[in-house]
Write a structure and sequence with these properties.
By secondary structure, this protein is an alpha+beta fold. It folds into two domains: 97 residues, no CATH class; 223 residues, Umud Fragment, subunit A (Ribbon), CATH 2.10.109. The protein is 25% helix and 29% strand. It contains seven helices and 19 strands. The strands form four sheets. Strands 1, 2, 3, 4, 15, 16, 17, 18 and 19 form a nine-stranded antiparallel beta sheet that branches. A five-stranded antiparallel beta sheet has the order 7-6-5-14-13, with no helix packed on it. It has a three-stranded antiparallel beta sheet with strand order 8-11-12, with no helix packed on it.
Length: 333
């Protein structure tokens, strides 16, 4: 019975069994190793999260084994009493201040983050261009969105023929040849459907990642036709705001609007830079990696700095139309 109690307690409070057995060095080792592995999921690999549970099980059985041959269990010693407090405190600190979990319900960030992905994010450190962030949706602060930061306060943004320009310079994008499609869940029909697309590899501020565009993007680049998701829309001088969002309810977070600036006095070709958006101070311009199927700053404007929840760092679990996909467990670019 005593071994069973120690095993169960060791699963909840790593190192407890070793502490009861008087093996203090081992007790401290397991007490530190388990939460450390948990926290390393932020900077090393999401597999560290699973390794922490494996270490928890191994440590619990090691604690039970440590009881063999001892004359008296030390239940009232300082270390067995402190370890539960330490274990609970470590998990609270990690989950509140270091590592948070989010589910992804839409395909707006495909292929980087797919529908059904479960993502770890951290609120440690600063964020900037190229980072994927979770934030309170400016048009409804009760909702959480995930997008990639493209530009920061003071930068200019323009999208022509699906090419993104930041401060007048095109974000490098290289075509990925071959067929392209992604899964999307259709709520009306209650089924998964395949959407056609085109895939490009972008490079922004040291981040390299894939973006999906409309199947016509390659043709538009050749013919010089504009893309329906180009930004800002020609002939519209109003900056993007919540009134443009179909799901707008109540902008409880004061959201800076930004400004639209014309840069070409004449009417150039559709793919030429001619009208850009100036990102307001203390705000971020965000876009989904699935450029043709994303509600983002092109529609409802910039995200205030204080609305940022955390930076997405890894996918730790993914469940798609075919079940769990362990190949998607990865650090995010």
């Amino acid at each position: 019975m005593m071994v069973l109690v120690v095993l169960l307690a060791g699963l909840l409070f790593p190192g407890f069994g070793q502490a009861v057995a008087g093996r203090n060095a081992w007790a401290m080792f397991w007490a530190v190793a388990v939460p450390l592995l948990h926290g390393l999921a932020v900077v090393v690999s999401p597999w560290c999260f699973y390794a922490s549970f494996g270490a928890r099980v191994v440590g619990a059985f090691h604690g039970g084994w440590s009881l063999g041959g001892i004359k008296r269990a030390e239940w009232i010693a300082p270390l067995p009493l402190v370890l539960p407090v330490f274990a609970i405190g470590a998990i609270v600190v990690i989950r509140v201040f270091i590592l948070q979990g989010f589910g992804v319900p839409t395909s707006s960030m495909a292929p980087t983050v797919n529908v059904g992905d479960h993502v770890f994010a951290t609120n440690r450190g600063s964020v900037g261009p190229g980072d994927i962030v979770f934030f309170h949706y400016p048009c409804d602060t009760q909702r959480e969105y995930v997008k990639r930061i493209v530009a920061v306060g003071g930068d200019t943004v323009e999208v022509r023929c699906a090419v993104v320009y930041v401060n007048g310079k095109a974000v490098p994008a290289t075509l990925v040849p071959g067929p392209c499609s992604y899964h999307e869940y259709e709520e009306v029909g209650g089924r998964w459907i395949d959407r056609p697309c085109s895939e490009f590899r972008e490079e922004l501020a040291g981040h390299t990642y894939s973006v999906y565009g409309s199947p016509d993007r390659i043709e538009h680049l050749t013919t010089g036709e504009d893309d329906m998701r180009d930004f800002p829309r020609l002939g519209i001088d109003l900056p993007p705001n919540c009134s443009n969002a179909s799901d707008f309810s109540d902008a409880k977070v004061p959201k800076p609007a930004g400004t639209i600036v014309a840069t070409q006095p004449t009417q150039p070709g559709a793919c030429a830079q001619q009208l850009h958006y100036v990102v307001p101070a203390d705000a971020y311009f965000v876009m989904g990696d699935n450029r043709a199927n994303s509600s983002d700053s092109r529609i409802w404007g910039s995200v205030p700095k204080h609305a940022i929840i955390g930076r997405a760092v890894s996918v730790w679990l993914s469940k798609g139309p075919s079940g769990y996909d362990w190949s998607r467990v990865k650090m995010l670019p």
